[in-house]
UniProtKB/TrEMBL annotation:
Keywords (A to Z) from UniProt: Coiled coil, Endosome, RNA-binding
This protein's name: Protein phosphatase 1 regulatory subunit 21
Location (main, coarse): other
InterPro entries: PPP1R21 (IPR040024), PPP1R21_C (IPR049372), PPP1R21_N (IPR019343), PPP1R21_six_helix (IPR019348)
Coiled-coil intervals, chain numbering: 90-177, 496-551, 618-659
Positions of region (Disordered): 1-22, 40-61
Biased composition (Basic and acidic residues): 1-16
Superkingdom per UniProt: Eukaryota
Cited Pfam families: KLRAQ, PPP1R21_C, PPP1R21_helical
Gene Ontology CC entries for this record: early endosome; membrane
Annotated organism of origin: Oncorhynchus kisutch
Amino acid sequence: MKEKETHKQSLRKVEQEMDSLSFRNQQLAKRVELLQEELATSQAKGQKSKNKGDSPSQQGLQQTQVVFDEDLQKKIQENERLHIQFYEADEQHRQQESQLKVQLEELERDHEQHQAIVDGLTSKYMDTIERLQSVQARLEVKAQTLERESNECRVQTEECQQQLRKCQSELNRQVKQSSCVIQEKVPFNDTNVAGQALGFVQDIVVALLNFHSYTEQRVHIYPLDSSIEPISPLNQKFSQYLHENAAYVRPLEEGLVQLHQSITEDTVTVLETVGKLKDFAEHFTSYTHFLQKILPYQLKSLEEECRAPLCTSSLISKNQELQSGMKRITSVFDKLHRYIILLALPSELYHPTGLTYSSAVFTQLAACLHSLHDAIKEMSKHYSQKAGLEQQLPTVTQKLCTTNECLLASLGMLTNSTDKIATFFSNNLDFFTSSTGYGPRGGVGVLNPLQAESMLGNKKKASDYMQAIRKPRAESVPYREALLNRRVLTSSTESRQGLTQQVVASQEKIARLEQEKEHWLLETQLGRVRLEKESQRIQDLETQLSSALEGGGGSPVARHGSDDTIGLVDLCTRQDALVRDEESREQLIKTHYMARVGELTTQLQVSDSKAVNFHAECRALAKRLALAEKSRETLTEEVKLANQNITRLQDELATTKRSYKEQLSMMSDHLCSMNETLSKQREEIDILKLSGKVQNKVPLNTLW
């Protein structure tokens, strides 16, 4: 293709030269015509002057004519030379054009052949990849099913253990009530409550990590794409701080895990004895300082988005609402960390009169958690509206849309997590705000660690005594439950073992086939090299034989000597060939394995990039699935409420119908009784009328 471009450039140059020569030729032709006209005019004037006789002016005209003739002869010669050059350049151009056409046809044929080979290999390997991907998907589904079953079994086991621990703790509590002189009250926390709080905090940590990471990714995409042009120094610094978010967010989870591990049934759990709460408070303080550090950069970054050329007034208003939301969230986190610090320093919570402020601190902490949930929910709503407005911009990219979706998913997860932990604190507020779990006799003062240790010793002695006087009962499980658990465990174990054996067999088969492929590829290359060496050696021997026959064909002795020489040369040649063959074999093996290592490195890099992309897509799909599940749960609850309302309305309607029927029956009875009364009254009236008529007739008869 480069040669074709070079030939094209040379052809353009020749065409330009031809155009200039043709233009020059036209000028010369016009000049010749003018000279011929001037010659004709001068000849006509000369003929006229001959009739008048010779004169001095005639001689000047003759000299001018001679000069014109010489100039005309030169122009004619130059025109012929230019015509010859033009013809030669035209012929050369045609030859080059025919050669380039032939080369172009050959290159096109080669390209078609290579493309056909590439298409065949692509279809072949794509089929293989699709088949392997389908097998991998089936295996992943089976593995997920087995993992889910094992998790269910583990959950059931943990529930049984928790019930056992509850029974044991209840027994220990009863023992302490009967044998301890220390007044026992409700503990500050136990394993179940701490475990629930740990789960909620872990969800919040994951949501915060995702939110900060996707915010950093958005800074590199909008308003300037870092892959096309450098972003502003402000956003660079903001991205650098956001990249350090894991160093501040992860310790929150680790601190609460340590706090949960320190809370056991063998310890007295009150504010004065929980030392790990102070470490958690320090980690929360560090994260609050991190939020305060990145807040100005967040506000300035939003202001920079407002200054973008395509930023509309509605987007500017949404950015301002996001700025106020971020300020509110930072202030709420600041309040939370102050209350947590107060809880970590229980000596500050006691008044000299003996009263405690811990209940007020827990109440304010629950209120702050609700405020945090409201602030994050409001910011999520504003961000959703902003993402919808950004999708309407003409310059929006798919990368920005995907990042916005991930940000909204992380905000949704953070909203749900804060709602859960706020509800959890509100529901257990009576438990948290109750008085100190243990205290000295009389309930005055606080429990120090030495008193807690003494109380634990008494508790242990009482527990040992109760275990000594009671006969241990053998732990048993109901027969039906044990049989069901055995069937589940047996089926899951067999299916997992079968899948594991299939996977191992498939991996071994693939490895064996790869080894055989490498072996035969190497053998093919070695055979090709040996064939080339043998062909070269045969050619060398034929050349030596022909030269020996030409040099010693005169006598038998010479031929005999030449035969010895040929044998010696053949032996030396074979030895050299063997040495070269070994060296070439080593070099070929080295080259082959280096090429194979490079190829595997490239495949590994491609696989890593695909795996990263697939992992990101899986995370996005998982988040979408979680959101869909949550929306499904919400809709299910709404449907349940609607069904309950329908049932209630149907009951009310049935009750109303029944009451109306009863009223109608009562009215009917009343109407019947009224009709009977009316008929009786009419009969009485008729009787009275008849009796009145009879009384009026009696005196007349008497008179007659």
